[in-house]
Every structure is written in C-alpha cells, then in structure tokens.
Amino acid sequence: MEIKMIITSITHIIEGKLLTETHITVNGWVKTKRTSKIGIIFISMNDGSCLENLQIIIKKNVYNNKNYISKLTTGCSIKVKGLIKYSPTTKQKYEIHATNITILGWVKDPSSYPISPKKHSMEYLRKIAHLRPRTNIIGAITRIRHKIIYKIHKFLNNHGFYWIPTPIITTTDTEGNGKMFRVSTLNKNHLLSSQNKKDFFKKDFFKKETFLTVSGQLNAESYSCALSRIYAFGPTFRAENSNTKKHLAEFWMLEPEIAFAKLNDIIKLAIDMLIYITKSLLDERDKDLFFFEKKKIKNKIKLNKLISSNFEQIDYKEAIKILKKSKINFKLPVHWGIDMSTEHEKYLTEKYFKTPIIITNYPKKIKPFYMRLNKDNKTVSSMDILMPGIGEIIGGSEREERIKILDKRIKESKLNKKKYWWYRDLRIYGTIPHAGFGMGIERLISFITGVTNIKDIVPFPRTPKNANF
Amino acid sequence: MEIKMIITSITHIIEGKLLTETHITVNGWVKTKRTSKIGIIFISMNDGSCLENLQIIIKKNVYNNKNYISKLTTGCSIKVKGLIKYSPTTKQKYEIHATNITILGWVKDPSSYPISPKKHSMEYLRKIAHLRPRTNIIGAITRIRHKIIYKIHKFLNNHGFYWIPTPIITTTDTEGNGKMFRVSTLNKNHLLSSQNKKDFFKKDFFKKETFLTVSGQLNAESYSCALSRIYAFGPTFRAENSNTKKHLAEFWMLEPEIAFAKLNDIIKLAIDMLIYITKSLLDERDKDLFFFEKKKIKNKIKLNKLISSNFEQIDYKEAIKILKKSKINFKLPVHWGIDMSTEHEKYLTEKYFKTPIIITNYPKKIKPFYMRLNKDNKTVSSMDILMPGIGEIIGGSEREERIKILDKRIKESKLNKKKYWWYRDLRIYGTIPHAGFGMGIERLISFITGVTNIKDIVPFPRTPKNANF
Lengths: 469, 469
Fold this sequence. Notes:
2 copies of one chain form a homodimer. By secondary structure, chain A is an alpha+beta fold. Chain A folds into 2 domains: 10-112, CATH 2.40.50.140; 134-178 and 214-456, Bira Bifunctional Protein, Domain 2 (BirA Bifunctional Protein, domain 2), CATH 3.30.930.10. In chain A, 30% of the residues lie in helices and 23% in strands. Chain A has 14 helices and 17 strands. The first copy, chain A, has an 8-stranded mixed beta sheet with strand order 7-11-12-17-16-15-14-13, with helices on both faces. In chain A, helix 4 packs across helix 7 (263-284), helix 4 crosses helix 8 (286-294) and helix 7 crosses helix 9 (299-308). Chain A is elongated and about 85 Å long. The first copy, chain A, starts with 5 loop residues before the first strand and ends in a 20-residue tail after the last helix. In chain A, 49% of the residues are buried.
C-alpha cells in the first residue's frame, strides 16, 4: 500500500497543524547537523516559513548505504520524507523521524560557505545581500515586514480606502527641493555630443526631462478629490548624498489621502493604524519579535507599551519651549522657526516624554507649499509623529484647498505655477477640505524590530555609490 | 437637545448599513440637480465610495433664504446634513431628506467644467487624467483595481507568501533585451561635456550606469531560495517605443516565486488565484462590474464563464499544429520556433478554444536564459496564460537550478556571466528546484473590466512622449 504523503512547510508542523504520525514531505536547508554516539544523525533544517528549525532524526537503517547523508553541511538543500512525532526534549514540541532523505543541492566548498553557522556582522551580511535572507535575523525582518505591509492593506481596505498606483516617472517635484534622479533613454552618443544644448531633452523618451518621484501625494490628491479615501503605496526616491543609518535613495512610502478630513482625523487614522499593526504583530509574529528580544533589543516591551500608551500630542511652539527649558547645549540652537534635528527629536521622545509624540502646527517656512495655512499666517496645519529611537516616521497635513492661498504659497516657494496647473484645477472645480500623511515603511520596520540601520531593513539597499545586486 | 450626527460615506447608506431615520452628515460632489414643479430640489451626489449616487431631497423650507443652493452645478462639493428615509421610487432604496446644506467648493465657470454630465470619449478623458476619476467609468476601474490587488495580497498571504520589495533601481537586465531607462543624477554640464568618455558614469550617483528594473524576478529568487514562498509586487519599466493599446512604459507586476515547485505547481497557483480574484469581484464589486456590462462589455458573463471553465492546457508544439491546420494566412507565417504574435493568440483563445489557455514548453530561443531547459534540449519548462481579448497576462517557468546548464544558457544568450555572480551563487550553495511567474496587473484589469486601452486602466499612464501629470 502506498502511503499518502503531505507536502508541507515547516511552520505548519511547528504550529501543530498536522497530527502526529502523519506522513509528510518537507523541503528546506540544513542549518546544523550532528551525529550521536550511537550513530543517529540529527539535522536541524529551515525553510524560511518561520524562524524555528525543524528537528530531523535519521536512524542508521535510513542512512545505511547512503554515506552521502553524513556529508551534509550547513546550507545544503534536502527533501525529507518521514513521520511527525512528539519530541521527547523540551527544545521543540515536534520532530520528524525520517524514512528517506534526498539531497537537492550541495554546498560547493563548504568551508568557504558565506553563511556559515557562526555569527556574522551586519556589515558583512550587507556584502552578501543575496544570501543573507538565509540568516535568522534577515528572515525575521522579512516576515515582519510582510505582516506589517499586509496589515496596512487590510486596515485601509477595511476603512474604505482604495489603492492608487501613482506614477513613478514624473515631471513634478512634490517637495520642491530638487534632489531627484533623472530618467532618460538618451544614448551615450547623444549625451556626449554638446550640440543640442537648447533642446537637450526633446529627443528623450518622454520628449522632456523626467525624474523618479519623491512622493505620490499630488497625484494621490487628484484621486481623493473624487473617490474620497485612497492611498498610494509605492517606491519613492531621493538623490541625497547622505550616508546615514536612516537614509536610503530608494524606499517605500504609504500615503493615505482623505477627503473632507481635518488634521485630527489623520492623526486618529495614523494612531489607530499603528496600534492595529502592532497588535497584529504581537499576535501573529510573536516568535520573530522574540528573536529581537533575545538580541537584547527590548522591542516587545516597547511594542506592548506602544499599544497601551497615549501618544503625546503637542504644538510645535510648545515643543520649542520644552527644548529651551532643557538647558541642553544643542548643536543647532533652539528658537521658534528651526527645523528640528535628530538631537531635538531624541530629547523629546527619549528623555522628556519617553513615548511616541505628535508635533503639530509647524512654521510654514520649513514645510512644503501644499500644507494648509493656519489663521496665524505663520504656521501650517501639519503633524509629524516621532518615535523613540528612529525619529520621524509619519508626516502629514491638511492640504491647502483655497486656490488664492495656494497660489500665494506656490509663489513664496519660488515654484512655477504653470507646472501645477492640474493640481490647481482640484481647487477650482469643487474644492474640498482634505488631509493626508506619508509614512516611511522602512523606518516603521526599523522601529518595530529595533534594527537601527535601515540598510538591513530592505533586501537590496540603494545608497550613494551602491546599487549592487 | 443636540442631535447626534453620524459622518458617513455614501456606500454605507446605499448598502443599508445605517437605519432609516438616522441623522447623518455626508459629503460629496453634485452629479446632477433638478427642481420639481412644486419647488423641491433633487440632488444626485457621489463621493466615489461606490458607483451609485445618493439622492438628496431639499424642501423649500430648507433652502429658503439660501438662494445659492439653487445655483449648484455638476462638480460642486457639498456637505449635507439630513435623515435617511426609504425612497418611494424604485430607482433607489434610500434617500436623504436634507436639513442643512453647506457648499464646500464651487465650480469656476460651470459651462466650461471639463467633467460635464454629458458623455465624454476616453481619448478626451485621458487629457484630463486629474479629473477623470470623477467619472463613473474611471471610478469603477479604480474600485475594481483596488479589490483585485487587495485580494492578490490576501490570497498570497493565506498561502504563506511573503512580500519582497525588490529594487527598482538596478544594474541588471533581467530579460536581456536592453530596453531600459537610465537613472542618473549627472548634471547637464557633465552631460554636455565630452571629456569623460571612458569613465562617463563614474561620477554618477551610484558610481556606475544604473537603470529602472524590467522585472524583480532575479532578486525575488534570492529570497525564495531562503524563505521558500515569496512575491514581488511593484512597478516595472520598459523603454519600448510601442504606442499600442497593450503597452505602457511603466506598469505593475506581480511576481511570485516558489521554492521546490514544478511547472504544474505554478500553473495551479495562477489558476487558483485568478478564480479567487474573479469570485471576490463578483461577490463584492458586483455593481461596478455591472456598469461595464451596461456598456455592452459582456464581462460578467465572461467572468462567470471563467470561474467555471477549464483552462485549456496545451504544449507549444500542439499550438503550432493547431495554427497550421487553421489554414489562415497569418502575417507571421507559422512554424515551430516562432514567437507567437497577437494574431496567433487571438485565433487560439477566441476562435479555436474560446476560453483562457495555457501554453507550455516554449522553444528556448524565444525565452530568457533563466528558464529551465527540458530534456529535449530545445524547449524550456515554461508556461504562458493567454486570455481572450487581451492575450498573454501571465508568463512563468521553472528556473534553471543546474549551474552548468545555467552558465551555458548565459553564454548562449550572449550575457556577461560575471554580472550574474550572485544569481549563480544561488545555484552553487544549496540549489533547489523552483519556479515562478509574472503577471501584468494592468492587463488583468483590462481583461476583467473589458476596457481595452491600457491607458485607461492606470491613473496616469506613461507612454512614449507622454509623462504628463
């Protein structure tokens, strides 16, 4: 009689979704291997479906005449057929008693396998970004990232938001700071000929100079001014020459835009979403979170605190007062009007409030033209959410819906009004009060995992001088 | 006594989620307005949350002394307070008896409002891409697109897949055809100086020539070779000078990659996913689908057929035989080895099988280097899914996991082996059989809605000579 084999993933076995004595086939990579004194081979294998490894017991009668099994090393890929049994040890609940092992792929020159079982530095792992997903830490980050993103989609879907694929290639500089990547198909010969100075980009693919987007917001607004609740979720780009732990040239942003909303509505949405995500992670990716805990990153305590904490909300001018009162000798002196830097944010979130904080009503001069001017004529109806450890992860505002004031702000910001003709149209034809925010996905993941270098948060980071893999 | 007002969206009222006699506030845009003989104003308003408009009844006592209400035109934005009542007509189930109307935004020069209530051509609407989401057709496409994407994430999450943000800026040409956009920060002066011929890109942001990705697959594979089930979902780019109904320079792709999978596994996954999406749409976006039906696009019949139909699966060589037998005088003559064009696909899906079809085992010469070579040495273990009306929407394959054969294929394809060092590593260290596919999101939406020009499927299309908005 042929035995029915269930092909399964390790997470199903570990979670007890299959009964003991079930015949299963499971595939994965060898993490470690040891042979007991009485000749039983123990293989710890992983398939990335969860953090935990599956214990495989191979008795002599299985590997007899199959000497190659004893030659397995870390990183080899195998197919295991066997039975699920309760494990007699406390280390794991279930183990597999193998009836057959097939080797799918060897590791060439095992002594030089880049992902040996020993500890590797994060710097080293960045150089082998194609193999580092095989490590516990990058695996855990990947599963947590997925859960965060999935829960964001779910949360927004449940709240009546529609996803909008805002364009990546654009002619618009949303933030008005000009740090953009050019997109072009002009060939080298054209580039190297100096004759076409005037109409340089006329021969380009789009017949004009185009760039990679820094934000989908302006385009997203045109959809919120029709479908009310929408969100952009996509990659954004900054050609900034900053080599810090917090900056990437390419990163993903979530940008919800809500029609008929005020500042408090988006603050509530942002907090509700952050708490929903955090609760889901504590419920559903507990083991992956605990992995960081073990590394002395106290993120579970932090996350539990987050979901029960009040997000402290203060006005920018109040924040400035607190900083002044601190009597600390900040590198950037504190006065009303400054664009707070990391040192200020750190003091507020980590020293003074010891909790996430929301700062509202920033001076208009340090914020983009599209933020709604307050009655004081000096500040805009804006908010930033700052997290201990990572700083700003969310920035949002009411959008200026009054055409006259918008035009004034465009002029003040020295932007070309003509270029924003379609954005202005949204204020000319049935304008509405509306608001939205942007959230940097990588920074949120950094905050949640406690992994502080953002280059370890994305699979293949793009930074100055680096676009490898 | 103050009455408690519930701020709600139109879809909640239309779907009967609130009781009649509930006091509500609802915001939106005027679609049409008429005044009855006895002076009652009827406003049909929409907020984009659903296709249906909400009927607002404004009696004389409400708009008395508020003459401006009678001046409302299509496109004006309003805030309505009122009571939910059963509607006496069969046109709708519920209507609102207004107690107060606030005008949020007028339409400047109503006679020239670009989205007047009359019928507009799709060509015309493309020129006002920032306002067209206010039309029924673009609204319906947007809501359907969201549901499709959300259900894709849900389906893959439920099947144990993790999302991977594969890089957008890359040095790798996955498809090996070179139609890529360059990404650069070199300034015009550098571009116009012809002195740096040799080290032209050394001064660029990434210190080398970089491009926009044509596919996230190779990077995705490095994660499936560690986490088993993963998917890329992001924008991809082709700098092809094709101005057809089916081509965009920027489009979104779904790319699942599965470790330990064979061709039949990904065919099953693709079909299961398509059926799951289609069922969800029929259940949850019925009205939006019906809108296209009314436009004589028989998509509901088509979709109902899809979920019950067998996807016909045939070998490439069988498909060639069928085409030969047809005795049709195709522009591109049929023989084993051709890369089928639209005319061939149309014959197979629309004339011969009259159903979606899956074609397997294409000649290696017309497919990329990474597809797994079959035993015949002539074909690769690949599959395309073709839909009536739109043609190919899915293309997938087993991935060549044998390093020697991969190297041979890289050489045959005249690619530089060194550039693929990290991709080759995946075959050197614990290689595994694996497979995956790519699905063009816009083409799927085009198939489902029956809207045939892909420029109407994306919010802001990027095509040769066009990167407006």
